[in-house]
Write a structure and sequence with these properties.
By secondary structure, the protein is α/β, with parallel strands linked by helices. The protein has one domain: Spore Coat Polysaccharide Biosynthesis Protein SpsA, Chain A. The chain has helices spanning 12-25, 41-47, 69-84, 132-139, 155-167, 187-194, 212-219, 224-229, 233-238, 254-271, and strands spanning 31-34, 51-54, 60-61, 64-65, 86-89, 93-95, 107-112, 119-127, 173-175, 207-209. A hairpin with a 6-residue loop joins strand 7 and strand 8 (119-127). Helix 1 runs parallel beside helix 2 (41-47) and helix 3 packs antiparallel against helix 4. The longest helix has 18 residues, at 254-271.
Length: 279
């Protein structure tokens, strides 16, 4: 990861997601892996809940370069699950209920998209140690070819596991599109998550991926006061986890807002001509 933790500060959303996992999964231990430790008020809240683990992020796999931070994280999650087993969650996954009924399976993934049109996403993975499906998935990185946000951006994180699941269904349990990845990352669904109050049907939902990359302009500077005062699906979910914090806790300084605007403008210029899948 970049020294600035991927260009984004640790936010209210990250803290609430970790807190939801700790409360509802009730794990024996929670490890948060990073190459460069986050900073700030929200990280101080989260750090109390986890065992921080500093790592050296891999820069290549099987001789293939890992140019982008997201692809380095993709590899780390497989390595750690193969070694230890357990539940992997992206930092922008909000847990709604216990996963206990999923713990007896070798590997569990959820579909992204109602008809599996996008594949099997890797923001949530449950696996036993040395799971055959994960070892097979890792071997596929011998053909890794993405250089960043290009046409192969999501190949090994979404498309490869979907293909492997079709070839080796006995090694994996696949959950519905609602289990982890509903609502989706479209503009209409992000509005449903963060701006609208009409309820999301929670039947079949274990957790919600909040699509940080697409939703960042909506969530970057959220404060407890805003979560309490503005009615939306996410804000209702988040309120219990910030109930004891002041309204302005973690509010950004003017300098932080200016740096954020500069980053957004720079990235907008870089991506203007690029199409890419969500993360």
């Amino acid at each position: 990861m970049a020294p600035d933790f991927g260009g984004k500060p640790w936010s209210l959303v990250h803290h609430v997601c970790v807190a939801s996992a700790v409360q509802r999964l009730n794990p024996e231990k929670v490890f948060l892996y990073y190459a460069h430790e986050p900073t700030g008020a929200w990280w101080r809240q989260t750090r109390r809940l986890v065992t921080p683990v500093r790592i050296e992020a891999p820069t290549e796999i099987f001789g293939q370069p890992l140019a982008h931070v997201a692809h380095r994280a993709d590899v780390v999650r497989l390595q750690k699950l193969i070694e230890h087993g357990g539940i992997y969650l992206d930092a922008d996954v909000f847990v709604q209920r216990s996963f206990d009924d999923l713990l007896d399976f070798s590997t569990v993934l959820g579909r992204e998209g109602e008809e599996r049109e996008y594949g099997l996403a890797n923001a949530v993975i449950l696996a036993e140690p040395d799971a055959p499906f994960l070892r097979r998935w890792m071997e596929e990185y011998r053909t890794f070819r993405s250089k960043g946000r290009d046409r192969y951006w999501s190949e090994h994180s979404v498309e490869v596991p979907a293909r492997l699941a079709q070839a080796h269904p006995e090694e994996i349990t696949i959950l519905s599109h609602k289990a982890f990845f509903w609502p989706l990352w479209t503009d209409a669904h992000l509005e449903w998550l963060f701006d609208r109050a009409d309820p999301i049907d929670m039947e079949g939902i274990y957790a919600n991926h909040l699509w940080e990359a697409q939703a960042w302009s909506r969530i970057e500077f959220l404060t407890p006061g805003q979560v309490r005062s503005r009615d939306s699906n996410f804000n209702r979910w988040a309120r219990p986890f910030v109930a004891n914090l002041p309204d302005n806790y973690g509010a950004p300084s003017t300098a932080e807002r200016a740096r954020s605007l500069s980053r957004r403008l720079r990235k907008a210029v870089q991506r203007r001509a690029l199409g890419h899948a969500p993360r």
